[in-house]
Every structure is written in C-alpha cells, then in structure tokens.
Amino acid sequence: MKVYEGQVWVLDFDGVICDSVEESTIAAFRTARRVWPEVLDVPRLLGDEPPAWMMRRMEELRCVVEHGYENVLLIRLLWEEQRVSETSTKGTHALRPKEIIYNWAFLKETLVIRWKCDTQALSDEFAFTRDEWIKRDRLSWLARNRLYPGVKPALLTAPSPVYICTTKHSRFVHELLQSFGITNIEEKNIFGLGSGPKAEVVANIARRHPQMYIHFIEDRLEALLETMELFLTVGMMHRLSLHFAVWGYNVYDSHIKAERYSPIIELLDLDAFISRVS
C-alpha cells in the first residue's frame, strides 16, 4: 500500500463551511425585484426584505441550487405561485417544496425559456446586488452569513492544506473568511465561480500535490459523483476520498442514494468533519 506524504482537504463553501441561505435569499429577492419589477410588485411595507413565508420556503429549497442565479429563479417562481394560489377560484395550490425539489432540473430549464433569461446576465445581476449590499452595509451582509458550529477552530488548526471549491464568486468567499477570522486559507486556494467544473478543480488540485491524498467534502451528491467518474477515468481514484456533508443543503433521499456508493462515498456528519480536518 502506497504511503502518502500527507493529506489535502478540498471543501465546498456554502453548506459545508457557511450557512448562507438567509443572505442568498435576501440578495436573490432584491435582484428579482430589480430584474422583474412588473412581476414582483412588492408592497412598500416589505421594503427590500423577503416575506417570512418566502424565507422559510427558500430554506427548504436551497438544496436544489447549484449556481447562484437559480436563487433568483426560485424567488420569482415562489412569488408567482403564491399569487396564483391566492387568486385562484378553483382551489389551485402553489407548487409544494417537494414538487419543486424533485422536478427542479426540468423546471429550471422551462423557466429560463419562459422568462427569456440570460443565465450569465442573471448571475451578474445577483453578484451586483451582493457588491452593492457590501458597499452600503457590510456589517448587515456579514450578519446574514454564519459559520457552522466548530468549523472556525477546525480550519484554523488544520495541519494539512485546505482548498475551497465553490460556485460562489471567490471574492465573496474571501471576504467572508476574513470576517470570520479564518485567515490561514490563502486567496489562491479559493476556486470560485469561473474556475471550471468542480470535478476538474479537484483533479487539478490532486495533480498539484502528486504525493498527497485528497479529501473532497461536498453537500451536493451530484458533484461527488461527477468527481468520482473523472478520477476513475484518469486513474486517480486510489488517491481520493469523497465525503457527503449531511449537515449541508441536501435532503434525506440523497443520503439514501449516497449510501449505495459506500464505501466510495462516505456520509459525514459535522462532528466527524471537525474531528478529522483539525
């Protein structure tokens, strides 16, 4: 059995390190209001904060989001569904969370076509909203993001190299890490939006450390499966462990599915993660 010189940890950000659903929902709501003012005719009393029912729904639906702009699509969908439900004379109900979750791939493509969306433009608008929020009130933006318990000391004491692999813009990740006091993860170790598919990013990190064993921790099963497939193809699977972060944005059904890939994919809880990385 090969003896490796050490370990490298590659971590997703949202749903592994940071619980950002509150921030992403508010940013998406503000973006949707700006992009579709004729649709989101929000009463003035709400201001620029989403209603409580929408916050609750977005917490349930966060598990379907891979790219930030999908938050904006969800906001408009929820708003329109709520309006239909309220005005229907036939008892029509809004789409239930499970209906959205299990049909999101189809729904997403349908909504992009129906609403004539440019996903890159929508992504840029979403990032612009965050940038403006930070400029106007950085402290309130930071307050809407929180670390999962125990993550900060674990990362600060990690003896092995740590990388971040995320679909979030790198500048937002770096800003949050600095504000949380996690200063030992260099900016060059953050691979954010535009870095390429996560599987490719993890493979490139593995090539950068040819004598090290790689741990990839992610809360989206699809990303783990894509990484597994690539590492099998390029013959590096013997250097990789895949960990499914069950404390993140996922549903129980995905835990059951992940168990089918055991021991290649391990279901990892937060306490075990903290213990291993530190």
Distance between the termini: 25 Å
Overall shape: it is: globular
* Proportion in helices: 40-55%
pLDDT < 50 runs, ≥5 residues:
none
Taking strands numbered 1, 2, ... along the chain, how are they ordered across the largest sheet?
A: 5-4-1-6-7-8
Q: Any idea what the radius of gyration is?
A: 20 Å
Strand content: 5-15%
Q: Can you put this structure into words, describing what you see?
A:
The protein is an alpha/beta fold and 278 residues long. It has two domains: 6-18 and 147-277, Rossmann fold (3-Layer(aba) Sandwich); 21-143, no CATH class. The protein has twelve helices and eight strands. The chain has helices at residues 21-35, 52-61, 69-87, 97-102, 104-114, 119-143, 151-156, 170-180, 198-208, 221-234, 252-259, 270-277, and strands at residues 6-11, 18-19, 146-147, 162-165, 190-191, 212-218, 240-245, 265-268. It has a six-stranded parallel beta sheet with strand order 5-4-1-6-7-8, sandwiched between helices. Strand 7 (240-245), helix 11 (252-259) and strand 8 (265-268) form a beta-alpha-beta unit. Helix 1 (21-35) crosses helix 3 (69-87) and helix 2 (52-61) crosses helix 3. The model has no long low-confidence stretch (mean pLDDT 96).
